[in-house]
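Hi C.,

You asked whether I'd gotten around to modeling the 324-residue construct. I have! Everything is below, sequence then structure, no commentary in between.
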Amino acid sequence: MPEKHDLAVIGGGSGGLACAQRAAEYGARAVVIEAARLGGTCVNVGCVPKKVMWNAAELATGLADAAEYGFALEVRGLDFATLKGKRDAYVARLNDIYARNLARRSVALIRGRARLARPHEIAIDGRTIQAERIVIATGGRPQRAPFPGGEHCIDSDGFFELSALPARTLVAGSGYVAVELAGILAGLGSKVTLAIRFDRVLRSFDTMLGDGAMQGLRDAGVEVITGATAASLARRDGALELTLVDGRVLPPVDCMLWAAGREPLAHDLGLEHAGVALDAAGFVQVDRFQQTSAAHVFAIGDVTGRLPLTPVAIAAGRRLADRL
């Protein structure tokens, strides 16, 4: 007989955790199902480790300027392995804190990949549970590079797996992820080229912000190449060379980071078995109350196409639990 819950949340990111914990505070029997590390994108491959790297880049800039302010320092360079190790250990501590928070609120945690088998039934790696209400909070992932040779690229997740600082890096993309990572890599000492399709970065932001970011990147030593649409990537003599659709071949680099958007993690969830509709881009369709086309299924965050900035995701999760 499948175990029964009042609420099952598929996804242990900021919004999903907040929703399950708030529901438990109201007395609901809640469960979180997560195959990866707790905390979602923000904690593991987003905001939190990125800020650690940004702070390291800021320190590097300050050290370079220190002598002009009268500080006599001996700088021996960056030990990237130490930086990565301490950053990863900090993230691991946060993962443990999230698990303890769930246990303290009597929220069950099931490790594994969830898939809807029936409207109220979820299969997790051979185990089956039932839930009166279900929340889809699976988030998103970086889009893959869609051209020949794209498998040689890393994405923003791969940035946090780097074991050494690339000497030369090509970043492709004009959104805030591309801008942030290009600036961080340059600050840490990599020779960075940023390839963008149009004439400036952050095109969905205020024009002044985009122009200011462009100038800041150039001041930091980043070469910005405009009108750059990728055609193919090839590995030659141990380096990577990107060819653009207009025939230009960019200088060789040691690492190419593709940061051209994200896509929802809504595939292979069995949503059709509960009557949950997706839009043309693959996002879960929700109304203003975050309810899907199935009355008992709700969705929050990246999987719906709504930007899950951590405070927003947490607030959304709590608000949803207040309505359930």
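If it helps when you're writing up: DSSP finds eight helices and 15 strands in the chain.

Thanks,
B.
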